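ARCHIVE CARD
CATEGORY: sequence design from structure
SOURCE FIELD: tokenized fold
FIELD CONTENT:
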């Protein structure tokens, strides 16, 4: 297993190279300066040296010179890896000292590995092109150039740090920094503090798992490890953050590693995506509505076609059974059989009528409709059939504006809803019909029962055609679908409220302004 000596005064840089190289099976030893590297070289047999240049005690140029002067070390490949000395004359000076490669930081992990393998495969340079006096002259020149550049950079950096600090603090995004070891936050901008509800002192005692406990230690470790070993430059994830008050909100987090002083840390840029989630949910709802409307459109066309064919089949059956009953009125057994046939055909006719109503989109006979009068008529019509154990409660607003629509169709809506309520109460309970002015030039009609109710998971389905909660043989599943279709054809809305065992409320809102017939 090749052993590589890493020489760099920055602990973060050493850690990064160690992670990359050890991940590919190389052994590594690290030193913070050239003097320590030479001391380690006396006790270890190295196969390659990767050295920074700008370091305290002994810099990289001095280390390379001493390395190549040592008969035991001179045949070990030596490569500079620097982010500071980037000028061509600095590179030429390093190569003249005997270095085998002059690499500029940062390099992608894959390129670092390629360079290392190439250096290990080839012979090391042993010829130096710089004598003693030339070394000191060129070395001093390089140091003076770098010192002047560094002073100018520091002046710019001080101004930039202050400016960028103000920008970060004022950013609408939440920006947090946490450590690699204990994972505690070392920085949070004002946006993060405001949104999460913590003070700066409080946030510094927390870790990412305090804000997002649902991540769990294992998943958080899986997210951070690729950033530690350099296999990924950043990670993007969606999760939720929990504020000081316990409320959670959806976020998108971009994580990336940063080298902060002597420690590896992680930068988290957090974007609140509550509005995005709301828009996505609204889009899904609108798409579902479009699909539902398209499905109803297809069912409507099919229903109209089926109704036409069924009417053609039922008409002769009803006509002939009626004629046979008149012709053979003296034969009771035959009358019973014909009556059964006529009853079945009559139910088929009612089903056809339901199909026709479901398929119809027009408002055929438009007039001013008094919903209060319709409610009273419905109660009078069904009171006897409902039985004495159904109590009718009419709460009708005086002076209710009339609606423009098809009176017969709206009457069918009320009769259908009232009959459903009676069935749901098993003919025992309170059936309430109420009207009141609604918002935005609308009136509201409410049908309330004290029956068995509808389980929440079925509420979205009961308006579907051919779906029924009644026992087999007691419903076609078209009643509420027809009601909903009539309400929509009047530019109205229908809302169902129900809980299993607690009764049902049907709220219908209809506009008081004129609606155009769609013939």
């Amino acid at each position: 297993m090749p052993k590589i000596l890493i020489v760099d005064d920055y602990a973060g840089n050493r850690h990064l190279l160690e992670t990359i190289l050890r991940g590919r099976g190389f052994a590594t030893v690290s030193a913070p300066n050239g003097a320590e590297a030479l001391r380690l070289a006396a006790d270890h047999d190295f196969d390659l040296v990767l050295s920074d240049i700008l370091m305290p005690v002994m810099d990289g140029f001095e280390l390379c010179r001493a390395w190549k002067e040592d008969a035991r070390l001179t045949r070990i490949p030596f490569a500079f890896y620097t982010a500071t000395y980037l000028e061509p004359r600095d590179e030429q000076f390093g190569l003249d000292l005997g270095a085998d490669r002059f690499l500029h930081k940062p390099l992608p992990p894959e390129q670092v590995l390629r360079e290392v393998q190439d250096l290990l495969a080839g012979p090391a340079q042993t010829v130096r092109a710089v004598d003693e006096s030339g070394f000191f002259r060129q070395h001093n020149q390089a140091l003076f150039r770098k010192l002047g550049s560094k002073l100018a950079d520091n002046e710019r950096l001080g101004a930039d740090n202050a400016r960028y600090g103000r920008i970060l603090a004022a950013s609408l995004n939440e920006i947090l920094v946490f450590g690699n070891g204990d994972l505690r936050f070392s920085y949070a901008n004002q946006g993060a503090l405001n949104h999460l509800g913590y003070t700066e002192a409080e946030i510094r005692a927390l870790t990412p798992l305090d804000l997002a406990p649902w991540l769990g230690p294992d998943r958080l470790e899986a997210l951070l490890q690729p950033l530690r070993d350099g296999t990924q430059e950043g990670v993007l994830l969606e999760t939720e953050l929990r504020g000081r008050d316990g409320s959670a909100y959806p976020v998108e987090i971009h994580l990336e590693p940063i080298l902060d002083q002597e420690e590896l840390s992680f930068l988290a840029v957090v974007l609140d995506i509550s509005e995005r989630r709301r828009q996505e949910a609204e889009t899904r709802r609108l798409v579902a509505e479009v699909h539902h409307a398209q499905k109803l459109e297809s069912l409507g066309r099919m229903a109209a076609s089926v109704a036409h064919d069924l009417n053609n089949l039922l008409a002769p059956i009803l006509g002939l059974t009626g004629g046979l009953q008149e012709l053979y009125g003296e034969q009771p057994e035959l009358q019973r059989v014909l009556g059964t046939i006529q009853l079945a055909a009559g139910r088929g006719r009612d089903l056809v009528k339901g199909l026709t109503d479901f398929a119809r989109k027009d408002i055929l006979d438009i007039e001013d409709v008094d919903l209060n009068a319709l409610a009273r008529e419905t109660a009078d019509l069904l009171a006897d059939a409902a039985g004495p154990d159904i109590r009718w409660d009419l709460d009708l607003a005086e002076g209710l504006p009339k609606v423009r629509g098809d009176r017969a169709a709206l009457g069918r809506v009320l009769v259908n809803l009232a009959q459903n309520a009676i069935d749901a109460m098993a003919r025992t309970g309170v059936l309430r019909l109420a009207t009141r002015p609604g918002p935005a030039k609308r009136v509201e009609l409410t049908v309330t029962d004290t029956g068995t109710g509808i389980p929440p998971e079925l509420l979205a389905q009961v308006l579907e055609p051919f779906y029924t909660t009644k026992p087999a043989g007691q419903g076609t599943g078209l009643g509420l679908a027809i009601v909903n279709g009539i309400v929509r054809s009047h530019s109205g809305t229908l809302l169902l409220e129900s809980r299993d065992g607690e009764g049902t409320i049907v709220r219908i809102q209809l506009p008081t302004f004129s609606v155009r017939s769609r013939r």
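CARD ANNOTATION: The chain has 15 helices and 17 strands. The radius of gyration is 42 Å.
SHELF: design records, drawer C
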